Amino acid sequence: MLALAATASCNCQQAPSVGGPSAQTSPAASRPIPIEETYTGIDEELRTLVRTQQEWEDLWSRLAANRIPRPAPPPVNFSEEVVVVAAMGTRPTGGHAIRIDSVRYEKDTLWVDVTSVIPGPTCMTTQALTAPVAAVAVERRPNVTGRFIDREEILDCG
In this model, does residue 93 exceed pLDDT 60? Predict the structure, then answer.
């Protein structure tokens, strides 16, 4: 994905402080970025930090690829914020969702907790391809590496 693939490392693992944040961890204030579509143009799984306006515009052109006319990307002040993005990639049905549960700084690492929601076998879903995405803007800090902790939640619709 253009230059975005190199902007954050996706080290999908457990956080170093089991049972809660360590004394050196600070929650990062975040604000949601409005992404109103589950039918985005992000076909592959993606976890990244977007650090520049150009990266944001490039990613937004893919996020809003299925919308006509294509809306402008939500405003972000990249001198003060970075955008954390989590995308599921293409899924075979509706009922899938993704959310960014929390973001926190620990030294020079931004830890991001992501949950992918998957419909269980008893759930009724639309028979349409979906590609859910979640994004939040967080306070910008210098020389930060993004680390993503992925969890999966299976819906029980029975």
Answer: yes
Q: What are phi and psi of 54, to 5 degrees?
A: -65, -45
**Per-residue pLDDT, 24:** 62
Please answer whether residues 149 and 17 qualify as being in contact, where contact means their C-beta atoms are separated by less than 8 angstroms: no
| Structural domain spans, the chain | 4-9+29-155
CA distance 16 to 28: 17
Q: Which residues of 86-96 are buried (b: 16+ CB within 10 A; e: fewer)?
A: bbbbbbeebbb
φ, ψ dihedrals at 155, nearest 5°: -70, 140
Q: What is the pTM of this model?
A: 0.81
Element (H, E) at 136: strand 133-139
Burial of 10 per CB tally in 10 Å (0-12, 13-18, 19+): middle
Predicted confidence band of residue 52 (pLDDT cuts 50, 70, 90): very high
